[in-house]
Amino acid sequence: MKTILVIEDTPTMRTNIAEILQLAPYQVVQAANGKEGIEQARQTHPDLILCDIRMPDLDGYGVLHILRKDPDLATVPFIFLTAMAEAADFRVGMNLGADDYLTKPFDDVTLLGAVELRLKKAPVIPTNPDAGSDHLTSLRQAILEDNNARQSLCDHYPTTQYNRKHRLYTAGSWPTALYFMSQGKGKVVKADVAGNQYITGLIGPGDFVGYQALLTQGPYTDTAELLEDALVCTIPAADLRELLDTLPVVANQFNQMLASEVANLQNQLLKDAYQSVRKRVAEALLLVQRTFYPQPDANLSEDRIPGNRAHDQSLPMSLSRENWSDLVGASTETVIRILGDLRAEGLIEINGSQITLLDRDRLTNLKR
Q1: Architecture of domain 129-266
Q2: Other CB atoms closer than 10 Å to residue 258's CB: what's the count?
Q3: Hey, which of 187, 188, 226, 322 has its CA 20 to 30 A from 208?
């Protein structure tokens, strides 16, 4: 029988939920506040947790934050119970790692449906004690650039299909997991106080996302948003922390990734300061092509794009005008005008929202 922990400070609400679940039937453990809920979770190791948000002393966000850092409870499905319907409240919870929301008041069918769905999607815990480290072995191999391990990483961790524009995390929230892109495309965005956005990175299949905040143990300084429907697996922060603490080679690999990212950002700052917008548009086109639409022979150095026109035409790329603007760091009108100029010069072809590179060699060597 599955065990469900109900953390709710309103006695009547807590009792009603427990009675409905017991009739299903589930074994139910009750807690009257957040602190008691954490104690009960560690004692009983429930299969699912239902938790109110607004509670004294320790609210639901605090409960989830603490449990997601506990290696034994990090993957337990977690559903928030809330009377609030504001998008901001939903987003905070999802960034912390919540699996679902139930907005009060809800009926018994809605409650049981949400519970059954989350229990079905819950990760399977190995029954063989010796197999308990399989997921860590897979993670270690994937981090150390084992392509086969990266392809099978989502077999060991909860995997979710997200829709376009879903945000894996937002700036200011605290990290609870490392994300791995199995399928799809995304972007990493920074915004200033006026709300102006700038794309600082592109993410695609095989990329780890959000590791910077986990390494610095601070809040996210950027936002990761999907550009299309994507398949993403979620790796608890506790698993990454265990590898970082016990295997120096893993820590070194992430340090190298972080150093490379810092170097790329510094290089981008220099380009933004001294290069023309026209040159930046050309480099943005080449960057998107390399990242999302690599050619069959794209194992060449990024500094040397083939000049053979017989092999120079690229696959059509699709990106919104706003995203091109955020990637270049210029107004949408300016970027559109320059794209029109490049088309007139025979460097690119534009068909609706799709852009095809016709001469990558000339785009690479664009001087003005």
Answers
A1: Sandwich (2.60)
A2: 14
A3: 322
